[in-house]
Design a protein that fits this description.
There is one protein chain. The protein folds into two domains: about 5-115 and about 180-345, no CATH class; about 120-170, no CATH class. The protein is built from ten helices and 16 strands. It has helices at about 10-20, 105-115, 120-145, 145-170, 185-195, 200-210, 215-230, 250-255, 260-270, 330-335; strands at about 5-10, 75-80, 85-90, 95-105, 120, 175, 180-185, 230, 240, 240-245, 260, 280-285, 290-295, 305, 310-315, 340-345. The strands form five sheets. Strands 1-16-12-13-15-14 form a six-stranded antiparallel β-sheet. A three-stranded antiparallel β-sheet has the order 2-3-4. Strands 5-10-9 form a three-stranded antiparallel β-sheet. The longest helix is centred in the middle third of the chain and has 26 residues, at about 120-145.
Length: about 350
Amino acid sequence: MNAAPVKLVHLAVLAACLALAGGLGRDWERRLALLPHGGDLTREQASSDEEDGEDAEETQEYTSRESRNETGTSQRVYRAGAELKADYHFVNFNKDRLNVSFGMTRKDYGNYLGGYGYTDTDLAKLRIWRDATRQEAWEKTYKESGKAAAESAVAGVDMDYDTRLRALLRSKGLAMRPGNVVEPDMPVMIKRNTPIMKPLALAFQKVANSRGYSDEDIIGAVLSMVQTAIRYKIPDNLENGLHTCGILPPARALLSGWGDCDTKTGVLASVLGNWSRMRMVGIAVPGHYLMAIRRLPGKGDMFVRYEGLEYVLVEPAGPAWLEPGMVGDHTKTLLAGAQGYKVEPFF
């Protein structure tokens, strides 16, 4: 499996970046192409129901809501015949009241969910294949070429098993990391979901065209929805026998109305990935996940450097309204912690 590279960025780099932020302007290195690829255009929730109809649980907020007076942030998740739909109403950083919708047929949604998470049965089948193949390789090779050759043949089976295991996890949106740790494969999930999120990206583009929004306004609109209209709730690592590594894929998050930090990051990046030249990276700190967007930082913006370029930090978790370049106090503490943070490119 060709996993996306993960690079550890040291605290000293962060400190230098924060110092440099004050002296840089807000101009983009290259402007985004406004139209998503292939397009052609002529915490209070209103509903707490998930797609299965069960009431969502009350959860603690990850960050404090910014001091603002706007009302009207809400969501409606519902069924309409053979389609599952979600309507989101929210206020963006321009203080405009916006609304967008997302939907999938129940059949497509069922097929979609089958691509995420693994079961113990999935692993058991793979182990059965490994054990049977090892035994066959040992017996055949030992008889023909002796013990050393047989041991080499078994080692080859083990390598094949490792390759198949990683391929299985990758097909389910997950990755095997050093130490046999399984975790969400954010780059794979985001690339896979970018075309699925295209209708939502086009809905945002339509709003932007009607209101004369700039590139950064579009990013702010999508970020505002993810932060404030999608509730913050932590998924279980094991759900009805399915190992999820504690993340919801983007379409499920939208059609459920909730998600945690990495789930919301997946939604945001998958929508924004529909604009050309959009360059984004994930930022992993102990117990938290956020992202950063490639642009020159403005005064006071928090950012990181990756491969010699500045990426402005973005905090999707919510429910606070935090514009690009702003993160919660808890996130600042994590970024400055002794363990530092990891950066992984999405595209």
